[in-house]
Amino acid sequence: xxxxxxxxxxxxxxxxxxLAFYRRLGLDIPADADKEAHxxxxxxxxxxxxxxxxxxxxxxxxxxxxxxxxxxRVGLAFLCGSPAEVDTVYGxxxxxxxxxxxxxxxxxxxxxxxxxxxxxxxxxxxxxxx
Length: 130
Fold this sequence. Notes:
Number of strands: 7
Largest sheet: 4 strands, mixed
Number of helices: 3
Strand order of the largest sheet: 4-7-6-5
Radius of gyration: 16 Å
Order of helices and strands: EHEEHEHEEE
Strand content: 25-35%
Helix content: 10-25%
Shape: globular
């Protein structure tokens, strides 16, 4: 069997804050997961998104240290149903106090695009085809 992409992991400093952000993007994550050290949510096609607290990662990798807050080398992008929905979701998230990195714009590659930061500073792209 060839390896296949099965899970994308996020290390978070604050599980409840991170899960609240992703719930606002439509992920079905039970409320009682906020106090867990490891949480998973299965998406379409079975691809899983998982969160681990910094303490969980340190429990199996004693040399691991939290990277500085901010953009990393992995990005998540959420497809919206229309260009107007990109604007709406971006507005809802920034109105809720999440930091907007790039306000919605019409990208030259034919999409309406925006970037908002999750509680750990990861850039989360919102997009729709124009």
